[in-house]
């Protein structure tokens, strides 16, 4: 007999997974639990009890994607959301409850929203994450008053400790069925039998020891948000609300004498979908006009414009990274203002074309000229940065402004032996007569690197008869088995 979709929806639902070669029940619907099925039994035993079942095989990837989408939607309550796999979330609502009329109203509103999305959820508010997790899975207390964590978990079963099955059975066989029974016993007995991990879990369950938590996203240093009584969908309204958020955030940054290095705007749709836009800057910033312009550049450059759907009912602007920022003091030469204008231009270009397409040079701590600098995104913010060397007044630079990679081989027509500079050389089918030369400057290879050059190099700064200046080097020395090779490594401007 073929079961239709309508008929199957009325059957007890069980989700199964292959465990050690046998299909076992891992999740049950309410109807399946009322029928007497329990998690862990084999599918054959379940069918022996109830022949007609709606059976689905577990899909861990789909479950993780669903949990992640629910976590995205829960960020409308707080930006600090932790994933408690495989089927839980932890939300740090410290400082957020007043936005919803208190803890009870926040819990009720979030539960109703998730129920409307077709999810069966149990929500608990407590001062410790382990307490809230255990009560949501094994208890019936919706809100734990401050300091009441230890009393709230006493009636819970031993399973609330989330111990290994063998340890749970050993404790149960000793006649200890609840957390309260464990708490009344000396902890040294359990530490000797089950290790310190069990006593640590017991302490965290009672809210006596803090629990390490890892949010799914970086907790911003500062954030501002707007909630709308009616969802907004017109782009001009979205841009106006975003500008208000930018002004609010920059005002707070000014009060803190800080600037933002990254600004992330999140647009929460009424159906739970979230769209995020991130802009990064090459230096700390708190000018609302500049930040708003960067967001407009980003919105205009999006290949996939933000889709409001049924409208955005909340917008948040988060600053995951801030730095101290004093007011710009322009010198007599105006260099500070000029550098700020250049940085502003780089930020605008990076916002429109992507950070990887707008680059700058950063000095590396090495004597190897091939690795002395590297190109990084203009918004890259290293923990430490080397200062570029400044040549002495009136002295030519030690390194050329343009370096060839790889160096160009040249033919030496005339040179002083053994350590003198060349007097005439040929490059690109043209001969050059040397008028002036400085050197040699010997640079040894970085022997600790596998791709380093093998022979020491003697570098010379050369000026030809027409005033062109070159940077040459000789690899090897006269008198070796093979004659030395000469290369042109760069040219001075």
Describe what this molecule looks like in 3D.
There is one protein chain. This protein folds into four domains: 5-58, MutS, DNA mismatch repair protein, domain I, CATH 3.40.1170; 77-205, no CATH class; 222-324, Dna Ligase, domain 1 (2-Layer Sandwich), CATH 3.30.1490; 402-491, no CATH class. The strands form five sheets. A six-stranded antiparallel beta barrel has the order 12-13-14-15-16-17. Strands 6-9-7-8 form a four-stranded antiparallel β-sheet. The longest helix is centred in the middle third of the chain and has 21 residues, at 235-255. It has 493 residues and is of the alpha+beta class. The protein is 30% helix and 28% strand.
